[in-house]
Amino acid sequence: MVDNEALERALESVMDPEVPVLSVMDLGLVRAIYQVKEVIHVDVAPTYTGCPAMDVIHERIKASLEPFGETIIHSVIDPPWTTDWMTEAGKKKLEAYGIAPPVGKASDKRTLWAPSPNVRCPRCKSERTDLVSLFGSTACKSLYQCQDCNEPFDYFKCF
Amino acid sequence: MTYQMKWDTCDPKTAYVLHLADDALILGQRLAEWCGHGPILEQDIALTNISLDLIGLARQYYQYAAELMGEGCSENDLAYHRDSRAFMNHLICEQPNGHWGDTLARQFYFDTFHFFQLEALAQSSDERLRHIAAKAIKETSYHAQYSAEWIIRLGDGTEESHAKIAQSLRHFAPFAHEFFVAAEVDRAASEAGFGPKVSDLSSSWVEKVDAILQLATLDPVDLGFPKKGGKAGLHSEHHGYLLAEMQSLARAYPDASW
Ligand SMILES: [Zn+2]
């Protein structure tokens, strides 16, 4: 049996390929780590339905745990991953990287045409920002622009 | 490829899951045609993101359907090796993209329906469908918001954009009517409790669509006489061309892999 904390520490260094400052732990994608008869099992939640990065994430998790033994990844969709699972440390890293972190609770997004949240500019921290496009460089982000410093920036959508 | 196709004998639940999958795949494929052709970069990216979400959703449904079919059936068999008659998508999903307004009118009707369909599926008697729907509804609310914003922008825009979007909306309304006319696949699903009664979804849909049309200074929706048949496998001529493009590689090289 390997110490679970050692496995968690290894997973802290597995980064999301599309948001390379966030680890799978920061994102809250790892649901459970357990060991059965010398085999390590990891339950991983997909971020969103069409995420093309999931295969890469699974491979990276496997590779990072290889030194500890055989690893099996299970993709679990219940309960569904939401941005609420992202850690506070993760949100801070995201903002420092230049991506505005999700605002509000994911449960709000179950209603059609909810009002857009006030998103803070990650550069100058102004809240006077405009939505430029609901869909940004990846499906999990929207494109915003700051009215004060004019900087365009990505917003990690709340969902 | 050892799997033997037998769609006509598949049970009501498998048929229903295939119907859900086919809608997502066919519309996802249509939207993918915009890749590299959007009027500006942000809109090109938006439509291809929506396409990606829909194809991801289709995969979830096809994987489930393949498990239900058993006997080594795979998601690829279901997406690439069925003929037009075996597909049960709504006719609206296969209609050509037309101009930007046509694509957005089609998307607006579909997204709004899709949202209410997923809301109902989140209450399905089938656990797997409940889980898939709970996840997809959040993405779909972004799609619906996006397409509704475009309807408002075009309707409340110039005289030309108003006239064009009004024409696109009129054109797709009878196709949208098919959402609410139960086919065999819907009836079996609602009787068994894993799918909603589709006629029950129409009032929420009409209410939401009309609220947006009013903001867009457009006339309320008139569904007209339904253009239907898709859910029974009777498709428009466009369907065959779409499948030909989507399936040709997988059929020419059945063992191809990435
Ligand atoms: Zn700023």
Query: H/E order of the elements of chain A?
Result: HEEHEHEEEE
Mean pLDDT across every amino acid position of chain A: 88
Mean pLDDT of chain B: 94
Order of strands in the sheet with most strands of chain A:
4-7-6-5
Under CATH, the topology of chain B can be stated as Ferritin
Bound molecules: zinc ion
CATH architecture of the largest domain in chain A: 2-Layer Sandwich
In CATH terms, the superfamily of chain B is Ferritin, core subunit, four-helix bundle
Distance between the termini of chain A: 36 Å
Structural class of chain A: alpha/beta
Distance between the terminal alpha carbons of chain B, to the nearest Å? Answer: 17 Å
Quickly give the structural class of chain B.
Answer: mainly alpha
Shape by Cα distribution of chain A: elongated
Examine the coordinates and then state which fold CATH places here, giving the name of the CATH topology of the largest domain in chain A. Answer: GMP Synthetase, Chain A, domain 3
Write the layout of secondary structure elements.
The complex is a heterodimer of chains A (159) and B (258).
Chain A: H1 4-11, E1 30-36, E2 39-44, H2 54-65, E3 71-75, H3 88-97, E4 99-100, E5 129-133, E6 141-146, E7 152-156
Chain B: H1 12-32, H2 41-69, H3 75-80, H4 91-94, H5 100-121, H6 127-155, H7 159-177, H8 184-192, H9 202-215, H10 237-252
Helix pairs in contact in B: 1-2, 1-8, 2-6, 5-6, 5-7, 5-9, 6-9
Question: How would you describe the overall organization of this protein?
Answer:
The complex is a heterodimer of chains A (159) and B (258). Chain A has 2 domains: 4-81, Fe-S cluster assembly (FSCA) (GMP Synthetase, Chain A, domain 3), CATH 3.30.300.130; 98-156, no CATH class. Chain A is 19% helix and 23% strand. Chain A has helices at residues 4-11, 54-65, 88-97, and strands at 30-36, 39-44, 71-75, 99-100, 129-133, 141-146, 152-156. In chain A, strands 4-7-6-5 form a 4-stranded mixed beta sheet. In chain A, strand 1 and strand 2 (39-44) form a beta hairpin. The mean pLDDT of chain A is 88. With 258 residues, chain B is an all-alpha fold. Chain B contains 10 helices and no strands. Chain B has helices at residues 12-32, 41-69, 75-80, 91-94, 100-121, 127-155, 159-177, 184-192, 202-215, 237-252. The chains are: A alpha/beta (159), B mainly alpha (258). Bound molecules: zinc ion. Residues 121, 123-124, 126, 146, 148-149, 151 of chain A line the site of zinc ion (ZN). Zinc ion binds next to loops of chain A.
